[in-house]
Known about the structure:
By secondary structure, chain A is an alpha/beta fold.
Amino acid sequence: MADASPQDGGYNYAYLDEQTKRMIRRAILKAVAVPGYQVPFGGREMPLPYGWGTGGIQVTAAIIGRDDTLKVIDQGADDTTNAVSIRRFFAKVAGVATTTRTEEATVIQTRHRVPETPLRDGQILVFQVPIPEPLRMLEPRETETRTLHALAEYGVMQVSLYESIARHGRISKAYNYPVLVNGRYIMSPSPIPKFDNPKLDRSPALQLYGAGREKRIYAVPPYTPVKSLDFEDHPFEIEQWSECCALCGSSDSFLDEMIVDDSGQRLFVCSDTDYCERRQAAAEAAE
Amino acid sequence: MQPILRVAGLTKSFIVHAHGDLALPVLKDVALAVSPGECLALVGPSGAGKSTLLRSLYGNYRADKGSIRVRHGEGWTELVGAEPRTVLDIRRRTIGFVSQFLRVIPRVATLDVVAEPLIGLGASQQEARDRAEFLLALLNVPQRLWALPPATFSGGEQQRVNIARSLIVDYPILLLDEPTASLDAGNRDRVIEMIAERRNAGSAIVGIFHDIGVRDLLANRVHEVVPGGVA
Amino acid sequence: MSPLLSARGITRYFGDRIACRDVDFDLWPGEVLGVVGESGSGKTTLLNCLAGRLAPDAGAVTYDSMAYGPVEVHALSEARRRLLSRTEWGFVSQDPREGLRMGVSAGANIGERLMAVGARHYGDIRHTALDWLERVEIARDRLDDRPSAYSGGMRQRLQIARNLVSSPRLVFMDEPTGGLDVSVQARILDLLRGLVNTLHLSAVLVTHDLGVARLLTHRLMVMQGGAVVEHGLTDQVLDDPRHAYTQMLVASILPV
């Protein structure tokens, strides 16, 4: 992987010292060995506060090497402030090539979305996770949630889905939708829209999840079954829109709603900027 | 006929701890036997221990010494010192007890009070209720009362419900504690009829009857209960 | 046939204080065993030891389970003990708030045990929950209400439904009618009595109220200062009390 020679400004390669990277890699190995299980790790102070992706950054820092190509997205966009900052950070401390093109990246760090372009064998998707514990809202005690996971006592989660149907007529959870990984652990897929959940199932890519404030890492190895929880008579369903992307015409990607003027005019636009741009470019080329 | 209830050496004292462990001997070496088709009347002065003896035969009062053997199912079972579940089983199938007063359970309808012992034996609710209705009618308990809990009934009505409940199962052994005490003449006669029918059908009966007329109609034999002393 | 639940030498201290000492009994299927005593008698400690919630300092509790045959309750792994307590056992707490999820609907409360063992059809779960609501005499239109909107008596009945939905063989009850109005108490006792009879439940019932014991239990154990001072059939113990303490308890019942 990376050599330990100091970079510009006296930072170690990829910012973290080698011992820290070793510790995080051990946590990652353990996480990959037990898909969906939350592994505690010794999270370090990073040059940005909790809530800004410190978990994802530590995971990326532990795995990135000179030959990697890094893409960073925030809610699907490469060009938000945070995505740009993190990309620049790694360009500086790891000397890696960066890209906005999904199919060119070897490591993709993401906040709250999975790229539309299907991932392939050899790619790594690093998720930024705020609250790693899927049962947290139902059971506030950490000691108890650990026991529930250990004993696979997940009745309480099913109860929360029942309650949602009783109150709203359907399972109303739209993002951070709980999944069962490899038939064993219930996992929070991070606040991605439920639209993206199917992409996690048996994905050829390696999924790594990092929560900096809570200091947990978990993982889903390639080709692992990931099933969204539901009821037989209320099966899992993804979102649908009545319109297509106003820019590229896509009818099968996640669309953001944008208010474009003071009279409340709305546009629906692909949330994945790279996907949208490529489709637009392909449409132009075809003309 | 061979007896199906045999009592030997039955001894019991009450110890009242609140009065310095005062011992009150009630039964001493009581012996008796009852056969199917027999009705044995317990006689003796008030306070002699008749009720105590009857309740001991039901396992309600615990004997200090002695033996109460009961033909239960295919074999004989010793009641003195028996395990709770054995006593419960004997009460379910073999020995019935008509107490002097109905123990009132709140909110349960008369019909269900009467039907309960039969359901406990495995009868369907319908079957048990039909039989309960039959018995209540026989005992002149008006139909309008059947859906009501017996708590508000008169003493005589409650007693008739009690009797119906105790007769709904065909017990081989019946213990009766003043079954006609609170009944008017007409109902008393009906109850005597029903008990006699059981006796003639082969039940072994032990009873306390203060009314000599009733006793003469039902009992074949008499057992003298002597206060605190030898039987 | 073997006993459903066997206790041998159950002893538990809290520091130097003895909470219960050398408790032995066998409970057979279909029996309701009452444990009576005044506060501080050790009856609740005993109940918690029997139900696997508290480890005794000495003695063993053996339960004849459907899933694994006879098992020593405190030698089981936590996973198995928890599974047992959700499937074959019930536990009705004195305070229904302890035995319910106050923040989710009655339907979810009743359905939880079913969902915990794999029920995944919302309609069926709801249907079963409605059925049970009816059995415990709660209006059907309260199914989606939370227990926080229920009265005390309704909460207790809901707790009973939540426990019985999994058809447990053995139910532990800690003062199930404690603190409720007399009329509400009567209703719940009646309900319990009916359910015990129709479902052939076995139960261990802790109460300080001899009237409750008379109504619901077949057998009775009287506890004083952590020890069982008397035991027998309920009618035996209440009509022919032998121990000084039992005689005192029986004599203390207020006449109505």
